[in-house]
Amino acid sequence: MEAPALNAWLAANPDAEQIPGRDLFVIAKYLIPMEATLAQGCLVASGIPAVLADAHLMQTDLLLAPALGGVRILVPSEYLQQAAEVLEGLARGDYALDEDMPIQDSPVDC
Question: Which helix (H) or strand (E) element contains residue 53?
Fold first, then answer.
């Protein structure tokens, strides 16, 4: 993302913070590590390189989650807008599966 576009995006999204010395930005925070892992999986499946920060620490002791700010999802600056759109879709339920979805009978080769 070019500097003017990045600055405009950051101005519109004040929650995003840059990791000092890196080209990574915090795009989302979750208090439950599994939710962060699912969100990261959606980002990676969409072609966005996303990294979890502090996930193992939160799994060790969930009482630390509020004090540390939760599990952070980091993405490079050129993927910020795309990542925000994917996470908005996740929050809307765009990626949810229907409970009545039929299970296909497919042979499993072992």
Answer: strand 51-53
* SS3 category, 39: helix
Q: Per residue in 33-66, is it b (16+ CB within 10 Å) or e — as a string?
A: beebeebbebbeebebebebbbbeebeeeeeebe
Q: Is 75 helix (H, G, I), strand (E, B) or coil?
A: strand
Tokens 């004090």 -> residue: 67
Output the six-digit token pair for 32.
Answer: 């439950």
Residue 10's CB is within 10 A of a number of other CB atoms, namely 17
For residue 23, the one-letter residue type is: D
pLDDT at 9: 54
pTM > 0.90: yes or no: no
Q: What's residue 70's pLDDT?
A: 86
Contacts of 12 (CB under 8 A, 6+ apart): none
**41 touches 48 (CB < 8 A):** no
Percent of the chain clearing pLDDT 70 (strictly above):
71
Which amino acid belongs to residue 55?
A
